[in-house]
UniProtKB/TrEMBL annotation:
<dbReference type="InterPro" id="IPR021109">
    <property type="entry name" value="Peptidase_aspartic_dom_sf"/>
</dbReference>
<keyword id="KW-0732">Signal</keyword>
<feature type="signal peptide">
    <location>
        <begin position="1"/>
        <end position="18"/>
    </location>
</feature>
<dbReference type="Pfam" id="PF13650">
    <property type="entry name" value="Asp_protease_2"/>
</dbReference>
<protein>
    <recommendedName>
        <fullName>Signal protein PDZ</fullName>
    </recommendedName>
</protein>
Amino acid sequence: MKFITLVAGLLISPLSYAAVSPWLDFTYQNGLITIPVKVSNIDSYAVLDTGANTNAINENFVAKHNLKYNHTGNIEIEGAFETKRNKIYQKVPVSFFGIDTHLERLPSLDLSMPNNAVLFGQGFFKLFNTQIDYPNKRMRLLTHDHLNIKEYENIDFKLQKGFEQPIVKVTLEDKSMWMLLDTGFTGGMLIERRIAKSFGWLKKQNPKTYFAGANTTEKMENVKAQEVKFGPFTLSNVHVAFPAEGSKVNVSSQYRHTSSKIRGVRVSGIVGYDVFKHFVMTMDLKNGNLHVGVPEKKL
């Protein structure tokens, strides 16, 4: 891809090293991207989640290491299935990409395995342009003044009004819709039940599974879409989930602060790993720009 070649070439210039980080290999945990970090000088991992409005700390990590942080109030966090009241911690020491810092106002979440110490949401992604090479399992950071992604944008993408969540226009079968771009979603697509009905999928005996959100789980039905268009690319046999009858699932906005009353465009679902795994995605979550490309061979 022309864009990927351009960005790779910029690394040759000595002036670019301060503006572009080296490639960092990451690991997958069932489709979740995790990178090595230190939290309170403890080697651990951070989960990268563009669908999360805020950074967060794993309550299981805190409990395992018996850590004592300054607790300053609570916040209501809206997950896919319920709203939960979470503690807020201050001045949590974190090191990543050679950066030593203290993170403020970190809500606690249940991130399952205690080795995953923190979740990096929009608070992390807005600091830099982020390039994620899914097939080669690596990523790097670029400063905003180093590359204007808007010049290379090849997909409808913006920040949801009020919530500032990254949303992308995806065509599922013959319907175009806005969806939350969520690196923290390990499936392919999660859509509203009304959309599944419009495709006639409710008339079928679909396999059922349980989908785990930030705070709880719910029963889902599963199908495979014949065609999904993501930017200039077309995919087939993409996994699609939707709420089973009676399930209470909010697929339009994960991790939304419940005090916000601002409404943006209608978001019909979530797109995640099963779509992203084919691509190199270069995103600017500060200004709302995205380029989707295919990977070159690993440098």
